[in-house]
Automatic annotation (TrEMBL):
The keyword Chloroplast does not apply. Residues 24-72 form the Endo-1,3(4)-beta-glucanase 1 carbohydrate binding domain. InterPro entries: Eng1_septum, PhiA_domain. It comes from the Eukaryota. This is Carbohydrate binding-domain-containing protein. Pfam families: Carb_bind. It comes from Chaetomium fimeti. Keywords: Signal.
Amino acid sequence: MPRFTLTAAALVGLASGVLGDLETCGQAQYDPTQYVCWDNQFLCPITAGEPLSNCAGACYSKFMYSCTNNVLALLPATEAPFTLTVDNPALLIHGKPVTAAGRHWSLDGETSSYCPDQVGDACPPGDETVIVSIGGRVSMSVMVPGGQQAYLDPFWNMGYTQAHSAAIPAGSISDGFGAYEGGGFVNLNGNGWGWAACPPRASGGGGPGWNLVARNETNAEKYNDCHPINLKINSLPSGTFGAWQYT
Ligand SMILES: *[C@@H]1O[C@H](CO)[C@@H](O)[C@H](O)[C@H]1NC(C)=O
């Protein structure tokens, strides 16, 4: 008998260790590593490290929505330039910037830019990656005539055109982005799968650093070892150029 009791206790301990310690939310039990409980009655999932907020029983992301008097509304679109930072407090690259180099957006890399000598003092610093999104499209905030458009490449990495060229790889997607004031930069093409950060060497390309990918139903498996993130918008004064051109 004592042996049986001990074993049962050990099993219970093991089970609770595997599931995490459950907490209660009203009548429900939940795992606080996966969910957040609001007002002791509403459970919302934690996605990309963000405990979703509650608006009269609906769960929402503060990167896209606000809740006023119990009514959910999309945040206003922003047409001002911005930098982007990784948001997922569970990751080491939380708060690190999206960086442009090699016509590709990476995470926590070095921004790569160029400015002709003749432009002289009018050259922007060029060490920060500044982006602007208008009407669902997105481009680099640059001075070079013709600009540099950004797009989802066929691998659902973010790329941008070379200065003086409008060439975009076949199969790229150049609209369906949302930039929300006080919120995030969202890829609306992915059916809600969102952005992910792929650690160095994980599948997902992008070279030796962390890579940014947009996930969707078909590539989610391939990007399995990447971590869901939000991209937080840090607004800049309108008319801010990050570089003459990004390289
Ligand atoms: C998902 O992304 C992959 C690239 O990673 C792309 O080939 C595929 O067409 C996309 N799927 C959908 C449903 O858009």
